[in-house]
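quick one: iron/sulfur cluster bound model?
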Amino acid sequence: MIDIKSLFDSEIEKLIIENGFQKFRAKQVLDWLKKGVTSFAQMKNVPKDVISFLENNCYISTASIERKLVSKLDGTVKYLFSFHDNEYVESVVMNYNHGYSICISTQVGCKMGCTFCATGKSGYSRNLTASEMLAQIESAQKDLGVRISNIVLMGMGEPLDNFDNVTRFLKLVSSEQTLNIGMRHITLSTCGIVPKIKELADMKLQLTLSVSLHAPFDELRSKTMPINNAYNISELLDACRYYIDKTNRRVSFEYALIDGVNDSDECAKELSKLLSGMLCHVNLIPVNSVQGTGYIKSKLKRQQAFVDILSACGITATVRRTLGSDINASCGQLRRKYKEGGI
Ligand code: SAH
Ligand code: SF4
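yep, here:
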């Protein structure tokens, strides 16, 4: 079966024409898809033979709301969405001053096995298709009655481990065919799959690349992020420089501050050295405690000392405000609890 909402309009047109229908039928089908129909039978002005062809060969993917949690602290909304095969992913909608942002998932689970991450802990099921990434945004917009203006690919999964579907999604979501959200309003976060960062750079999309670094020494990084055994810090930073070179875009580095693990002065100094002269920004995140990891967030004083060292070395860094802390907004935690019957 063809996942019709993952197709570009030119591909839908080709599908319709090659199966013996008139070209303008494709335009009608596209218009209905844009309106958000969930079945082909809802396409009222489309003739029966076209409908039955579509029903026999294609499906319309949707993301159904399985659970919804709203933060009492800041209004952040967390969704658990289900797909046609009963797989679940999480998305989070945040309301910043400049509009609504959504953090979407790109895979059901993740293969990368980072030790601090709830998603990494619950294993990998499958890749999401482009339409399933889109559907998370469409469902959230419909439910909240708002227009979402910013997207971060920072939910469950490693986007660059699902490269073809993710790049297809990026092209779709930024086109008039769907939501028309510009690349400059999209951020893609990766644990550091070096060849794929280079491939993305060569595509010269104007999106923000966010790299989860979390440690400045290879030995320490390999302990928490197994991907570092395949591509070490020096190779990763070379790929980031390549990305900046190709796109002229500032790269963000994510650094989760974990008490007694990666928050020493020595780590801050080494991080400053590594990033010196690079067009970048560092986001420091007090680590979210995930059951079974034993990690706790750095003390406030330590967080400040870490920022101060980076700033003194000319590296711009901010400690990220944690939103939705009362609803386990860090991705992977809700699905894990749900599967274990906790909610
Ligand atoms: N796989 C991608 C994107 C999804 S993870 C990546 O790793 O970048 C999104 C972000 O959440 C990453 O920066 C990741 O390192 C971070 N993260 C995961 N678990 C966390 C936790 N317990 N506390 C803080 N940040 C966490
Ligand atoms: Fe996967 Fe990212 Fe979690 Fe690592 S941090 S396990 S790459 S989702």
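The pocket of iron/sulfur cluster (ligand 2) is lined by residues 110, 112-114, 117, 119-120, 157-158, 191, 212 (CB under 6 Å).
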